[in-house]
Amino acid sequence: MIKSPLFEVCMDLAVEDTTAWSEAIFGSVALGDKRLTRRLIQIGKQLSSTPGGSLSGSCGGQDALIEGSYRFLRNKRVTANQIAEGGYQVTSWLSQSIPTLLAIEDTTTLSYTHQVKESLGDLGGPKEKSNRGFHVHTTMLMDAEQEKTIGLIAQERWCRDIKERGKKNHRRVRLYTEKESYKWEKNTRELENRLGSKMSDVISVCDREADIFEYIQYKLDHAQRFIVRASHNRKLEGSNCYLFQMLPSAVNLGIYTIEVAQKANRKKRQVTLELKTTSVTFSPSERRAKARELKPITLNVVIAKEKNPSESDCLEWILLTTEATTTLECTRKITRYYEMRWRIEDFHKAWKSGVGAEEQRMQSIENLEKMIVILSFVAIRLLQ
């Protein structure tokens, strides 16, 4: 990628100069016209200077700025993906000198009620009062050792067709690549394209939704590293035993104390975890094996379970991983990396509340998507 003169400011993740920050993030976005790129930089500066407000409000009452900003969003030659790609390339470049990277990913929704609502996707609720908006699956990179947010590296946005609601049988016969669950592999493929050989230093960190046989096999087939929280009680190959039933026999390596953050009705507290490990081999179900060429997969497992829980809600993580689990230090590191998965939820909060992604009012779905993409990078800045 072509680096702007101010590109180096991105190495200082706490940069205060919003002009320099916006030039660094958006200065290399390829829009086919330098004037469009300059306008994008200006919009980025405005929004990062006044996070949480509207686009017009960020213009400080200057009519020319307001008109120029909205004209940019209406320009059909500019797409949300073009804007995003420029930002991803910045993240890729910043990641090159970092020894170990965590690719933390998760899915959220952005909900809207204004006039463009009917063009957006189904988010659930009664059909006659269905919530509408985008489903968004985001991957962001973090420095594993410094625990710093580097930036966004992949994001998929889509609108779910309300006509498909309730058609579970239809989903069963769809190809894996046509299902929403393919989003995990799709983002991984985008990471490969943007990071190249640097992928060997990347560990994907995912919640239980990513416990998908096809996704895990893809990662293994491409020698990619991951930590995925187990969701399915899979049958072990060559045995009548299942994953959850064999966990008590895992090797006990020691303890690890973590701090659990406050969330909803849950209080902030310190938790001592007992760490165990084992290795397992799963075979694909017959139905899955027929639909795609799947083979048995062998994984390491870390079981992090609260020791002497004082509350009814006992903390327990069953983590499937490619990482070594032979020592207490190894399992502590894996558990710490999984703890950092919550940073993606911090991003969602910053995106929705911090910079007001759900408060934006646009006249078309295309304009709205461009706006929320710009705001996604502004939200990352709040985390840095």
UniProtKB/TrEMBL annotation:
One of its GO terms (molecular function) is transposase activity. Residues 20-78 form the Transposase Tn5-like N-terminal domain. Gene3D superfamilies: Tn5 transposase, domain 1 (1.10.246.40), Transposase Inhibitor Protein From Tn5, Chain A, domain 1 (3.90.350.10). This is IS4-like element ISLpn3 family transposase. It comes from the Bacteria. PANTHER family: TRANSPOSASE, TRANSPOSASE TN5 DIMERISATION DOMAIN-CONTAINING PROTEIN. Residues 220-377 form the Transposase IS4-like domain. Pfam families: DDE_Tnp_1 (PF01609), Tnp_DNA_bind (PF14706).
